[in-house]
Amino acid sequence: MNGDDRGRRGGPAPGRPPGRAPGRPLPRTALLPGGELPQSWPPPQQGAPPPRQSPPRQDVPAPRASAPVYGARPPARRTPRWRRRIGAVLIVLLVLVVGFAVYIDFTLGRTDALPASSTASSKGTNWLIVGSDSRQQLTEAERNEYATGDESSQLTDTIMILHTGSGPTTLVSVPRDSLVNIPGFGVAKINSAYGKGGGPEGGGPELLVKTVEQATGLRIDHYAEIGFLGIVNVVDAIGGVYLCVPESIKDPKAALNIKAGCQTLDKATALGYVRTRATASSDFGRVERQRAFLSAMLQKITGPSVLLNPFRLVPLATQLSSSITVDRSDHVWNLAQLGLAMRGIGSGISTTVPVADGEVHWDKKRASALFQALANDQAPPEKALGP
Q1: Which residues partner with 132 through β-bridges?
Q2: By CB neighbour count within 10 A (0-12 exposed, 13-18 middle, 19+ buried), where does 352 fall?
Q3: pTM, whole model, 2 decimals?
Q4: 173: buried, middle or exposed (CB in 10 Å: 19+, 13-18, 0-12)?
Q5: Architecture of domain 106-384 in CATH?
Q6: Cis? peptide before 33, omega within 30° of 0
Q7: Residues contacting 107, CB < 8 A, separation 6+
Q8: Where are the domains of the chain?
Q9: Which of 140, 169, 172 is nearest to 158 (CA)?
Q10: pLDDT tens digits, residue range 341-379?
Q11: Tens digit of pLDDT for each residue in 198-208?
């Protein structure tokens, strides 16, 4: 093996310092006596500083791709500032809405309507909706404008039962002249129970609920009452009620002169429309108009044109708190449920208690079938429905 072969196999060839490239022989003058190689080449000059020694290189392992750790969470990312701002605005709006709802609930008119001693039992949920013809909150000018007469009346012009549950939503009108047994007073017209019990300031609502429960066998779970002024204020707050009127009606006693057709009813026209009996169908026609108007009004109240418009919603909520009276166990969210239930009347059942002789006596067999079906939370049979 010669020197070149030894250099190729890894050892330094003779005459070359370690690390010197082959092909450039070392001059003889660079050899030390005895032919030994110097420790470094070129040799250091006299007076020159010693060569700078670099620190010994440590073997640093090459970085490896870190394997994902099972169950480890990725580093948290900061939420963009605009998202935090939107979240803060939504929280503030939510607090305002909840606070406003609590305020409205606190200011609702309340009365003792549901008797604690009630033994009636039925499935589903039953609302008793009452329209009082009390004029006590109307001024003399308003009584003249709306042709409501004096303020001594304490009758209930409107009595409805709204049933909700697993069956279809059912709204039943009770003719106000129906002859029923009023507890403690004997047989009389059902609309007189309110006044006989003491009116709004006495036990009128409770006696009316007892009378309805006894006559129908249904347990009343919620109570809502609205007077003449309440209808006027609510209709005014929502900007009128759009309704399709089937026939023209002119009734000076109700300050009403309305043409047939679809139109928006203002507060005075709406009040006259639900009060008038100046049609061929008399009370039966009136209860049909009352159901149609109530359904249209509640549909607008629960619609986007009111709920998404603060200029409508705030006045409405304020008027509701002063226009509607509920039982002491009822709250504003119960009224919201009532409004949503009324929106289902279009696909539900709207009827009147069947009567045997005009408007006074109920058809006992058909009326019993109607209320028995509601008590069982079932759809009433077709033959049990009134006009």
Answers
A1: 156
A2: buried
A3: 0.72
A4: buried
A5: 3-Layer(aba) Sandwich (3.40)
A6: no
A7: 321, 322
A8: 106-384
A9: 172
A10: 888 787 889 999 999 876 688 999 999 999 999 999 999
A11: 776 678 899 99
